[in-house]
Each structure stands twice: as structure tokens, then as C-alpha cells.
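Problem 12. The chain below contains 722 residues. Write out its predicted structure in C-alpha cell notation.
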Amino acid sequence: MTWEIHLAGKAFPQFAEDWNRLNDDLHGGHPAFDSRFVGALLAHFGSGSESLCIHRSGDGVDGALILSRRGFGRWALFLPAQAPVGALLVQDARCLETLMPALPGQAWMIDLLAIDPAFEPDWSRLLLPRTMVRHQLTMAVATGGDFIDYWQARPSKLRGNLRRYQRRSGDHSLSVRVIREPREIGAAVSRCAEVESVGWKAATGTAIGTDNPQGRFYEQLLYDFAASGQALVVELWFDDRLAASRLVVCHERMWIMLKTTYDESLAAMAPGRQLLYEALQIAFADMPAGAVEFYTNATRDQTEWATHLRHVCHHQLYRNTTVANVHGIARALRCRFAGGDAAQPSAAFDVTSVAAYRNPAEMPPAMRSLFDGAARGEVELSLEWFANLQAAVFGDDDTVRYYAAELNGSPTAILPVHAARGDGRRVPEIESLANFYTSLYSPLVGPGADPTDLARLLQAARADCTRARVLNFHPMAVDSRAYEAMVVALRSIGCIPFRYYCFGNWYLKVDRSWSAYLEQRDGVLRNTIRRKRRRFLAAGGSFEIVTGMAEVESATAEFNALYRQRWKRAEPYAAFIPGLLRWLAGSGKLRLGIARIGGRAIAAQLWIVSGGKASIYKMAYDEAQAIHAPGTLLTAHLMEQVIDVDRVAEVDYLIGDDPYKQAWMSHRRERWGIVAYDAASLPGIARLLCEILGRTIRRTPARIDRTQGMFSIRPSRPRRTP
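Solution.
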């Protein structure tokens, strides 16, 4: 797997076939990534020094992009102003890890500009440090369904305004012309240039003209695409006068609105909006199941036409962590002294709203739906879990916040946090809303969320806790989408993040019955279960699995008594376990196993069954009854229940690498944390230097764990337990 670096202006034509094949395979032949589009950009706006980067795996090309130098050690995706979006064609983002060493000179960072999240690679396995910032808010109109239904779903103000503009133009004879023939494209582009040359764009030097590079680019581009039926110019005429024009490239599932212009002397009749209305009707007729993409920095008025909104973003990749940290510190300090922010959205208006709630009950139902989605995979991400944790553990903590983000009214992310002052710290730290009861924490992210949404929430948390110089989130699934998104978000807001190991997590993938599973266990375990079970039953032993509300109060008392007997102390937060048991019993998730001899409880285990997974959450037993191995027998009894009766797909032992857990489980994964330091303040930099020094003294080797998809250093911070 190697990169080839070619001079783009000369080499691009010979790689056009490979480029188009990649575009077809990865992005369905996106018109803006087509070799005809990119080739025209190079021909008319390239400097001649651009580098075509081709990645090969075996005999095939599986990666391609065009880069330009932006200074010492810095490269950027080729993106002239006429390019609606950045062209990044890579099957696997991990191939970018070897790109910087392959570039000429010393390459330290690469700016991947204007990346559309709908057409980007999977970043989750990329090991390179990365930041991400919003470039623009783009919009699309989905053409599935009927145009009338689409139009009736638009805001009444938009529909009313359009009717008013149509009435104003009633004295004119309106006609719509669609130019598709290659031989007519040149004249249509010229007419568009004539209209634009007398408007405000002419004054700013951005108007297309028949004798400037922009005009020649659009004429060549639309001619080439029209030859395959993939270009059109839609014009609105008032009598015999061109009122508005739109240039479009397309394929059978996508239109891209490249350029729009209108006669400004007719502004009172809004010919541009009237033309858009007509053009969308044509698009609905041409594409029964497609989308019209605008690739614009949408205004509030423009978004009223949209069925979908998303943020096009700039990504910055660093060669290694050292480069990322040095650059991050310099950028954070520069932003602080300049009075700016390390990560500011550049949309024409801010379509993302952020709210802070003190408890989940304050949230509107739509926002709470993110908890419901997350809870289907992890019970500890449910609204009820956080509510019980907050009430029992953080009840007196007025710093608890649930920061929530919405994109145009649709919830995207929630970040539960609090400001911690533990270990004698005088300055608070922003931490995950978690403690030793938590085996897995994560921000709640919706399907359309990205690291920029989390960055907005982190900024809100820092604004509310201005003295905090450290942010700490744990324990998280290291291979999860949210974990990497948090690392990127923290780096993007000017913090320097470090990953650290929390604990191992053993689990079982259930693919057979209980009896078949038991036959696959170690012989010592099987013999122990059979031998001890006979003795246990002979001594008057019995098992009970409590699942409902009727028995939960008495079972809770038995569990707490065993816990105090085993650990010689009560639960640190007395209300947590009873509250948890009541909720689980009421929702059908409780599996509280109790082993008794002569009616007296000698062992108890709290299991949670939710979302096809059984979690072994907490256990206690009477050490005086160790001769009966009640813990082993109860585990076996509950294991049979969840495998054969509940039919779960996974059994999770949650926290720790205890040897006995390995005897029951089949796989291991890890939970990690992220600690980040404010690089724009002296206290934050001081804490950062202490972190670096501590890691250096430990001399812990860095490792790359492809199974976890992370670059990490371990071990680090010990996990505090009660």
C-alpha cells in the first residue's frame, strides 16, 4: 500500500478513469467529484504546482485527492472558489496516515477543506490527530414524493411571499426555458454572464464573463456535462427579457445548483425565487427519488426551501500528536489574545441551538428521545439511569448540567457533566456525569451529529464554568463513534486531549444454548458447578430470580444486608441501589438472583437485561458460606436464565480483569477516558506540562491497537473505587 505523488496538471488526465471509478464506487458518481469537473478546475484555476496523490493497494487505486502547498509543512485540498465541495476519494481513511511522509519536503499538517459529511470516509479508525470546524451550512431538497406535497410543507410565509411576487409580475408574460443541448450551452452561459456583469458581483470582481476564467470554466464544464445529458441551464424570462438563470450539473439522482443570477432591476418581483420554484418542479419531475444540492452558506430565508440541512466542515490532520499539541497551544493562545474562539461556526446564521438543563425532567420530549435511542444499546445511557444517579449521588451538586444541541429544531447531541472539586482541588474540573457506579459513559449523539456538535456543547460547559482548566470524561468505549468524536471536539476547541486506560471489560458473545455453552467452559469450572450444586441443594439450598415489583423491596433488603456483611460497610450512596432496583423491576429489566440455604440469603447478584444484553452489575455473598461456592452457582443459574430464557446476544461482566471473569466470558475490550487541558491559560498549560512529564517519567510505551482503533498510552490514571 503506497502513495504516488504526481504533478496534477499533467498527470490528472491519465488517472481520470481511476478517479471516476472511485467516485462511482464511493459516492455514486457525485457530479462535483467527476473528473470532468475536477479537470476543468485544474485547467482554469490551478497554479500548475498542485499534487495529485494516488494510493494503491495491490494493483488497484483505492485513494485519490489533489493537494496544494499552503506554506512550510502545510498542505491543503485543492479547492478553488468555484468548487462547491472538496473532493476526497478514499476507501479507507487510514490510508491518509501514510500520506504526509510521502509528500515532498516536510509535511506536518493537511487541511481537508469543505468536506461534505454525506460524502466523507469513516474517520473512526484514523489514528492521526484531527480537528474539525464548520465551514458552511448547506441545504438540500429531497425530490422523493410529489412537488405539491413538498410545497405545502414549506412555511406559510414563504408560500405567501412567492404568491405576492407572482402577482407583482402579472403584467409580464413569464416563460421558463430549459437548455440541455451542448450546442446551446455556450449561448446560455453568455446570457447568464451578461445579466451578472451589471449586478453587485461585477462590482466585487466575482461575476462570470465571456472573457474571464470563470466564464470559460462554466462554459467548458456545462458543455462537457451536457454531452452526456448531465447539465442544464434553467432560465426565467419576463416577456423577451432574461430575468434569472441557474446553471446545473446533475446525474439521475442529484442536481447541483452551481450558479444563480438574476436581473437586479427586477428585484421587486424576486425573479431568482420564482425561478427556483420553477426549477424545483422540473427537478421533481426529472428525479423521482433524488436530491437538489445547493452547496451554499445558507441564510435563514434560504433554509425555508430545504428539506435537509448539514454542515460542510474543514478537517485538519496532523502528522503526529506532538505537532498537533504544539499547533493547538499556539492557536489557542493566538485566539485568546485576538479575542476569538478556537472553533467558531461560519454559517450565515447559527442554525444550531444549545440549551442547558439541570435534570432530564426539564428536557422537552424530542430531546429526551436521544436517551431512548442510546438506551437501546446501553442501559447506562438511559434517561432513568442518569435521573437515579443524579438523585442518589449528585443530589446536592448544583453544577450538574445536561448540555443539549439542536440542528434546526432536531436534537443532535446531549452532554451530561458536572463540575468536580474532588481530591482537594481548589479549581473545579468539568467531568462526565459518572462515578464508580458507572461502567460506561458517553455523550448521547444522534445519527446526524458530528464532533462540531460536541464542540458547541463543550464550549457551553466551559462558558458556565469559566475557572475550569481541565476536562475529564470516563469511562468510555474506546472503539465507539462518540469517543473519537470527543477527542476531535476537545482538540477543536483549543484543548489538548490525552487518552488514558480505565479498565478491561470481559464479555460473552452468545451463539449457543446454555448446555452447549457450559460444555465449552473449562473442565474445572464445569466440575465445580456440578459438584457444588449437588451439595448446595442437599443442604436445603434454593435459587430465586426476582424480576418484578412485588418482591423488589424485600429482595433489596436482602441484597443490602449481604453487601454490608461482605464489604463491612454500607453502600456509599444508600439510595442508589434501591432506586436502581425499583426502576429495573418496573421496566422488566431486573434479574436479581438470590441463593438461599434454609431460607436465609447467602449470595445475591444484580443483573440487568436490556437491549439484548445481560449486564452483571453487582454481587455480594456471605463469606462464611464460601464452602458452597454460592457466587459460582448463582452465576451459573443466572447465565442459564439469560441465555435460554431471555435469549440475550451478549453477557457483559462490566468492570475489571478479575481472573474468574475470564472463566465465564469469551472476549475482552477496554474502557478508556479522555483528559484535556485548556491550552489558552497558564494554569491549563501548567497542568498540561505535568501530564506530559508524568507520562514521560512512566516511560510507558506508546502502542497502536488496531482492534480498538486508537493510538494510546497506558496505563495511566488509576480508577477510583469505593
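Discussion. The radius of gyration is 31 Å. Students who got a different answer should revisit the alignment rule from Section 12.3.
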